[in-house]
Amino acid sequence: MKMISILAILFLNQITHQEQPLVDVYTVEKEESIEVHVKNLNDYSVTLELNIELENLKSTKWLPITVALDPKEDSKLLELFITDRSKKWSFSTNYSFYMGSIFADHTDSYEYRLPYRLGSEIAVAQGYNGDFSHSGSIAYSIDFNMPEGSEIFAARSGVVVDLKESFNEGGTSEYYIDKANYITISHNDGTFSEYSHLRRNGVLVNIGQRIRVGQLLGYSGATGYVTGPHLHFNVKKAVKGGEFITIPVKFRTREGAVILEEKKSYKAL
Question: What is the pLDDT, as a whole number, of residue 132?
Fold first, then answer.
């Protein structure tokens, strides 16, 4: 006699705005074992946290387990073997998942392109650990002083995995915190870059689209939690539990690859 139960728990990230991430945990019954497989249907990496309650079964891996899955990966996680075939066996599977790999290792040697038109020079309105809003998980963020409607260019190549462009309001009230238009791009090292506060209908790319560095992405605005028009940019990675933390990165400038300083202006090369 056997009993099989699989329960999926969607664990949505508080920073990303994806509504339905797609990960499928399924079993394949073999003559001598039950294989547990997982399929990541997303265009970005995810972290899966899995536990299985076993009765008269043993697993080939210690449980619970946490694994990272590449975009579109379909692989076997483990096998379950019956301990005593004269008795009933059963298992119940519980899992949660969220955008990004907690094992992602940022390529620190990468030099990011400044996200505005080549030859133009723009000031950093707020830098890393800025007093107004750059603290905690978003401490390593940059605000570029860009008038509304300014062109925004990709600082690094990747795949568009999330976006929003329907909002048309902004301000300093907490009411506006989740009302920013944005583009999120996944990179080949498992990290993400985010371009925020875009104007309404100011996105020129689509989810799933592969982006090259320097490609026009959209137009800046003043949506969400803002004091005025600007571009908010950061690079982030997932951490256990489904949150994100931002990462300090260097940009290509006339002075070489540098961490940008608040109130200084930089020319895009």
Answer: 84
